[in-house]
Design a protein that fits this description.
Radius of gyration: 21 Å
Low-confidence stretches: none
Structural class: mainly alpha
Helix content: over 70%
Shape: rod-shaped
Mean pLDDT: 76
Length: 47
Amino acid sequence: MKSESSTHEYYQIKPSFQLNYLILMMVSTARSFSCRRSTNRAATSQT
């Protein structure tokens, strides 16, 4: 009975972990994209 409850907890935790990972990837991608865009704008204004 103990192992069954532990596996249930594991399956409840896993989806939230995947969701957090997905959000983290989206945030890092958006951050790098905005950073690249800001550097491009700085380069064009410098020219």
